[in-house]
Amino acid sequence: MKAFSRGLAFTLLLLMATVATSAQRVEFSADMRVSDGTGRTQILKISVGNMRARFDLPKQENGASGIGSILIDFDHQFIFLLIPQAKLYLQIEGSAGTPFYNGAWMFRPYAAKYPCNDWVSEGDRRGLTLRCKSAGQDVLDGRPTQRWDATTPEGGYGSLWFDPELNFIVKVSRTSKSGVQSGYEMQNAKQASQPPALFEVPTGFRKFTLTRFADVLAGLGQW
How many domains does the chain have? Predict the structure, then answer.
């Protein structure tokens, strides 16, 4: 259950970042390769509309009834978790999703000219000294990006790649002081208007409670 919670929180945080900043409302779809620091890598599908987003998770090999998609309605601060096999959904509202909304700057920065600044500020808030500097221009998956490299006095280091056209940090590579590697990389990004139906709960899905959700998760094992 703890592993599932950590994975879900990381996934939701990534998704919230795609819609949280209205400075540049770019609609696009992309694949995202995510490494969570445990040696596992997953490829997720992102679809971003106008203050809406959808995150499609890979199907489980054993066919278990797991979460298949996450829908975000940023205007109304709703998060919908869809379980397609059972045609069920859980709705997370308002303050329950606050940690994810507040963390969005990590991936779609407030100041596009200095995409590393918010990471440095968050490090200061947590008592971590993070030094970040521009490493010049780079091309990632055929798209022009700006690379920034960061280090900590304790030995941690990493890099981020910012795509100014998407206004999104399309890659993060991190290595902790203990050598744990994690991060993500967006691939196959395509700018295009997204169908509104992508961001709606499908017809025929039933809403269920958090208590029922816990019962469902108990049978999912590791996520």
Answer: 1
Q: Nearest 5 degrees, angle CA 216-CA 41-CA 189?
A: 105
List the structure tokens of 75. Answer: 């205007």
Which SS3 state, helix, strand or coil, does residue 72 take?
A: strand
In-domain check, residue 223: no
Helix (H/G/I), strand (E/B), else coil: 23: coil
Q: What is the pLDDT along the chain (223 residues), one digit of tens a residue?
A: 444 444 454 555 555 544 444 344 689 999 999 988 787 888 999 998 888 889 999 886 665 668 899 998 877 878 899 999 889 998 887 666 665 555 556 677 777 888 888 888 877 877 888 899 999 999 999 999 999 999 999 899 999 999 999 888 899 998 988 989 999 999 999 999 999 999 999 999 999 865 555 454 444 433 2
**What CATH number does the domain containing 200 carry?**
2.50.20.10
222 within a domain of the structure (yes/no)? no
pTM above 0.90, yes or no: no
For residue 52, give both structure tokens.
């809406």
> What are the angstrom distances between the C-alpha of 103 and each of 14, 108, 112?
9, 10, 16
The answer to the question of residue 167 being in a domain is yes
Show the beta-strand stretches assigned E in 7-51.
28-35, 41-48
Q: Provide the residue range defining the domain that includes 72.
A: 2-217
* Amino acid found at 17: A
Q: Cα dihedral angle (126, 131, 133, 139), rounded to 10 degrees? A: -60
